[in-house]
Every structure is written in structure tokens, then in C-alpha cells.
Amino acid sequence: MDYKAAKRFQLVPGLIGSNGQFDIGIGNYGLMIEDYVWWMDNERDILNWMVDNLPHGIEHQQGMMVYLPTENDRILFLLRWGG
Question: Which whole number is the average pLDDT over 48-53?
Fold first, then answer.
């Protein structure tokens, strides 16, 4: 199946928890997974990349969200996986 989405992720600016602070502990820079078919097709490679490049490995993915600790990490993630 040759499936390519125009948009794989949506930037989520200004993540704030219910207490007025972001307390997930794995990053303040969020991406929402929009193309979940693509994600599932590439999940093993993406999770391996997270283990090799992010401080909390696969814990950076929480459901349909990917949380990244710095803007640079988000840029590197998007450069590698954004399409």
C-alpha cells in the first residue's frame, strides 16, 4: 500500500497541565500524531529513534501525543519523521 499523508503531525504550542504547569516530566514541546496509519507503519523505527535520541525513550509518546523536552528536540524529530 503506497500511503502518504500531507501532514503527519500537528504542533501543539503552550502545553499546560491542569494545575497551571506542565508536569508530565518528558517535555514541554508537543506534537499530535495526525497520520496514525503512517505512525503504525513506522512505529518500530520511530520508537527505536526515540530510545537512541531522547532522554526518556519511548515514554515521550503518550497516546496520540509526542512530547519533546526542547525546541531543538522537536525540530530534530520533525526533520527525521515529518516527511
Answer: 97
